[in-house]
Amino acid sequence: MPIINVENLSKVYPVAVKQPGLKGTLAHFFKRTYTAIAAVKSVSFAIEPGEVVGFLGANGAGKTTTLKMLTGLIHPSSGRLDVAGYNPFRREPDFLRKITLVMGQKQQLIWDLPALDSLRINAAVYGIPDQAFRQRVGELSEMLTLSDKLTQPVRKLSLGERMKAELLAALLHQPQVLFLDEPTLGLDVNAQVSVREFLKDYNQRYGATVLLTSHYMADITALCQRVLVIYEGQMIYDGSLDGLLEKFAPCRAVTVELAEVKTTAELQAYGELSEASGRIAHFIVPQEKLTHTLSRILAELNVIDLTVAEPPIEEIIGQIFRSGAVGI
Amino acid sequence: MKRSMQHAMRKASTLVTVYYAYMLEYRAELLLWVLSGSLPFILMGVWGQAAQGGRFGLSSLDFIRYFLAAFLARQFTVVWVIWEFEREIVEGKLSFRLLQPLDPGWHHFASHVAERFARLPFAIAFIGLFFLLFSQAVWIPSISSVLLFTLVVILAFILRFITQYTFAMFAFWIERANSIESFWFLFYLFLSGLIAPVRIFPPALQKIVLWTPFPYLIDFPASILVGLPVNVAQGLCVMIGWIILFFGLNRWLWRRGLKRYSGMGA
Known about the structure:
The complex is a heterodimer.
Chain A: E1 4-17, H1 21-30, E2 33-47, E3 52-56, H2 63-70, E4 78-83, H3 93-96, E5 99-103, H4 115-125, H5 130-143, H6 159-171, E6 177-181, H7 189-206, E7 209-213, H8 217-223, E8 226-231, E9 234-240, H9 241-246, E10 251-258, H10 264-268, E11 272-277, E12 280-286, H11 290-300, E13 303-309, H12 313-323
Parallel strand pairs in A: 3-7, 3-8, 5-6, 6-7
Antiparallel strand pairs in A: 1-2, 1-4, 8-9, 10-12, 10-13, 11-12
Chain B: H1 2-24, H2 27-35, H3 39-50, H4 60-77, H5 81-91, H6 94-98, H7 105-133, H8 143-168, H9 178-191, H10 203-209, H11 219-226, H12 232-260
């Protein structure tokens, strides 16, 4: 029995259109025209309890809109959805007690007060008794290595500490279903790793279901066995992560800083050039050609600095889509 | 039943104490906020002078006491929920509130109540200082008028809050809902008794004004505290009527607005 069940879910936003210039401004003032933008188009999927699922897609693909519908924040234009046995948009208290949403670029903690004060509000709102509150805060802050930070004003915390405190606040009521929208956004590598480990630990300890979006491939590979890929509002892939990676030749992103500026044509001789500006060039290199390409670059060009990284998810999805590996 | 009461009490006390701590973070601002409500003191001087001609049926001393009471009533009824709510909509922060099993309105209400407690000592000190300087203005209201004033000022706060929170709902449809409040404030300024007591208005105008919510926000509580004659029963009925009306409108707009909410930026 799936804990999340989505059938033909769609969301259409009316967006006001304005032409540039004074004429356009006046026209916009007197007679506003709207176009309907379909952010999510007939998406269907089901998630079983305890699963950790990665939700991938480029910016504006419809990930956040889908999460907002699943958490009852926005009203779907059409389709059916069921989360933990409830219709999310009704926002029944029993439903809200079962879910949580963490948004990497937003914060719920009161900025000028210690996190513990915000946690006290959450405890009261969710009706968590004092004893359970202390025990949960102790347990979660230990898992997050955060205990001495909770009495400091939130504004004094580092970005990583603040994100951990946000997670604590979002999980205080022990939700069964976690919706995480870019939970590691902007964090340094260490903080990313500890947030990831915490989520893994939390999923195993409480058997919670997790649906997570991220721009960092490492988040997805560390946590998710299954991924959903959304492209321009439509679901284009639902299956294992390995299956997704098999669909295209695995690549690396190579960034090179050169001593002098080279033309695009000169650089293209070394591989697929994704971006070049000044002395910096970015290549996407297939895994099997990596050693060969790197030795050529180092031998033939005057290199100041060179880094090899996993390509951003955007790149992977773009590539999958361009190569036609996954049809709609 | 008893348990749900306890839960509600715990929610209320936690919200108010945490928001009280939040307000106390702004010590210097609090003093300025209190002082920014000192318009009645300026008008007190103007009307005190004007009343010496004896044309208004109120003495200079009446005017001084009236505006002092108006100052106090205003301190209890300052509301800014529309700006907060609009910010929550524009920045998408309403999303976090919507995720919790508590109507988001209670957060705003609790923060206003908490601010009253934080503001009160400054306002009392201000009035104390005034009495020290103008000891002839001192008067001791009767216990019953103090109790009635307390009741009325609480209702006035609720009325002011629910009207502004209702206008705030328009933030779901328009970019700057506070323009509605700015327009409303114009009527508030003249008809509430902040600029002049309603009893010196032309009788025909007075009759109309007494059916609007405005005079009950300042003039009505201030008159009660000073001991000027008012129609208490009619006043309370009109206040409660407007509160119920705006509450209904508020919930209706809230439900419709949520369907339009897109959680911008979040």
